[in-house]
Amino acid sequence: MRHLLSAADxxxxxxxxxxxxxxxxxxxxxxxxxxxxxxxxxxxxxxxxEDSTRTRISFEAAAKRLSAxxxxxxxxxxxxxxxESLKDTALTLEAMGADAVIVxxxxxxxxxxxAHSGWIDCAxxxxxxxxxxxxxxxxxxxxxxxxxxxxxxxxxxxxxxxIVGDVLHxxxxxxxxxxxxxxxxxxxxxxxxxxxxxxxxxxxxxxxYDLDDALPGADAVMMLRVQRERMNAAFFPSTHEYSxxxxxxTRRAALLADDxxxxxxxxxxxxxxxxxxxxxxxxxxxxxxVTNGVNVRxxxxxxxxxxxAETDVWEMSA
Length: 318
Fold this sequence. Notes:
Layout lengths: L11 H15 L16 E6 L4 H13 L3 E6 L7 H15 L3 E6 L4 H7 L6 E7 L5 H15 L10 E5 L6 H12 L3 E5 L15 E3 L2 H4 L5 E4 L15 H8 L3 H4 L7 E3 L12 H4 L6 H21 L12
Parallel strand pairs: 1-2, 1-3, 3-4, 5-6, 5-8, 6-7, 8-9
Helix pairs in contact: 1-5, 1-11, 2-11, 5-6, 5-11
């Protein structure tokens, strides 16, 4: 069984294969008919226990462009406990004959549980689990970085990437650190001490609490959304103080390398972690990230479902 559960499952070659495939599939969007017959007859289920319009629509568009049948199942609001709800839903999906399940869940580890439980016999793709990981977001970020920093080819060897903000609650940060490290980039995490997770010293990255010190000469900066909905304590004195110390404005953006770019996984808190003029400025590739998300997710579905029917392209599960 092939799954995509964690960025840690991807070797350097695996990641480059996905990015190269995404580049090839992206050319489909330039055609009059933006569809391929690759997954005709396959069923892809979007199983979202947690809201995420951007990710859900991106996966849905990716599957449909590959001609798969798509079922979107919103399980948010269920009164059943997480374990029972996940099992009962999994049994329903098995009865439907799903070929791949895209899972987003508020509980860290839920996609792993689904993939290895024996409840279903299909591919599982992690679309975000709790504060753990979001591997396809890291892949689309890497695709965007590679396009701008290395001409869309090879890896990201020697590039300096700064990731800023609510690292504690961010599944995007963890996946990006793991994937960008595999691709040869040097990553620095910047956040208030209260928003750095325990054990971050074991991650393959550097840690800083001073944004002005980390930015000069960096090839890219990725601003993370401050996830107020996950916070139940006073992690910083005020939004104004957070913005003053860790927000990206035009002065700080100018510290980047001449060709440095600005990313954000969205949705943005404009005026808090990033100012509007930077978000909409010439260095910003935030809108492009959304476009690249569809292409990268097409590549993941193609390689898991289309590629595996013919050749052993890659093995992504632990």
